[in-house]
Amino acid sequence: MKIHNCIAFVTGANRGIGAAVVEALLAAGAAKVYAAARSAIRHPNPRVVPLALDVTDGAAIAAAAAAAGDVGLLINNAGALEGGDLFAAGAEAVERQLAVNALAPLRLALALLPALRRSQGAIVNILSVVAWAPMPGLAGYSASKAAAASLTGSLRATLASDGVSVHAVFPGPVDTAMAAGIDLPKTSPAEVAGAILAGVEAGEAEIFPDAFSRQIAAGWFADPRAVAEQFAA
Ligand SMILES: NC(=O)c1ccc[n+]([C@@H]2O[C@H](COP(=O)([O-])OP(=O)(O)OC[C@H]3O[C@@H](n4cnc5c(N)ncnc54)[C@H](OP(=O)(O)O)[C@@H]3O)[C@@H](O)[C@H]2O)c1
Predict the structure, then answer these.
(1) How far are the Cα atoms of 118, 150, 199 from residue 162, in angstroms, in the given order?
(2) How far is the CA of 161 from the centre of ligand 1 (A)?
(3) Cβ–Cβ contacts within 10 Å for residue 31, how many?
(4) What are the beta bridge partners of residue 40?
(5) What dotted CATH number matches 7-232?
């Protein structure tokens, strides 16, 4: 799909990758950007329509979908990461991350589906390289991204005949608050945002938006067991 003149909806639009995606959409000529965040943002560009949305709130999702009946591109970006030992964090931490990272993107897709079908639009789910194999220090996050990847694949297959494309994004470390504690080279949110929009325009089902992501993807497709062992260590 073309980004120019599209009407987009971005969750977690207040900071990090989400804020960068909003700017990239505006720069690429999007006609309107619904910028959803837990606390509605202020933005100087009149093409930005701020929405208050906690993605775990079903009533708020319904209200946002009613307000955005003309949307053509849903970007499920909002995400939560709780690091730490699995046993100390407990199942509740896993449940919280599943709610934000796996179930909320599905709920948003379903709520916006009538509009996306009308516009023959696209859904973009921002996952992670840990969707492929778990990192034990990020157990709940890895599980939630793996679940989100699986749901993304099911949505893609289900919506193929409706003309709605579904894209999975697998970033490596990106220089945002979420990755503050990760001691690896990080890609800028702006570079990742640009690669996401380029991937959508090119019709790529799977988008690898940074060098780390492309390197891990190559390893994963060649030897998944080696990547799983590397992540586990
Ligand atoms: N940074 C990385 O290295 C990296 C790598 C791979 C994938 N990702 C993914 O990229 C996406 C964006 O992450 P980021 O790096 O930009 O992280 P970030 O700077 O920590 O931003 C996370 C965003 O998600 C929002 N959010 C969290 N829970 C929410 C909820 N219940 N309702 C609505 N919004 C909620 C946050 O809103 P508040 O400001 O209200 O908390 C914030 O806007 C996430 O899906 C993340 O998993 C990031």
Answers:
(1) 9, 19, 20
(2) 31
(3) 14
(4) none
(5) 3.40.50.720
**N-term to C-term CA, the chain:** 40
**Distance, CA 151 to ligand 1 centroid (Å)?**
19
Dist CA 95 CA 37 (whole Å): 21
Pocket of ligand 1 (CB under 6 A): 11-12, 14-18, 37-38, 54-56, 77-80, 100, 126, 128, 171, 173-174, 176-179
Show the beta-strand stretches assigned E in 38-107.
48-52, 73-76
User: Which of 174, 196, 212 most suits a substitution to test ligand 1, by most atoms within 8 Å of the C-beta?
Assistant: 174
Segment 140-157, tens digit of pLDDT: 999 999 999 999 999 999
Q: Map out the domains of the chain as residue ranges.
A: 7-232
**Residue 94 has what pLDDT?**
96
Distance 7 CA to ligand 1 centre (A): 21
The contacts of residue 233 (CB under 8 Å, 6+ apart) are none
Q: Which has the closest alpha carbon to 85: 77, 94, 96?
A: 94
Task: Tell me what the pLDDT averaged over the chain comes to.
Answer: 97
Tokens of 158: 């289900």
* pLDDT, position 84: 83
Using the predicted structure, report yes or no on whether residue 205 has a pLDDT greater than 90.
yes
Distance (Å, whole) CA 162 – CA 159: 5
Would you please indicate which residues are annotated as catalytic (active-site) residues? 141
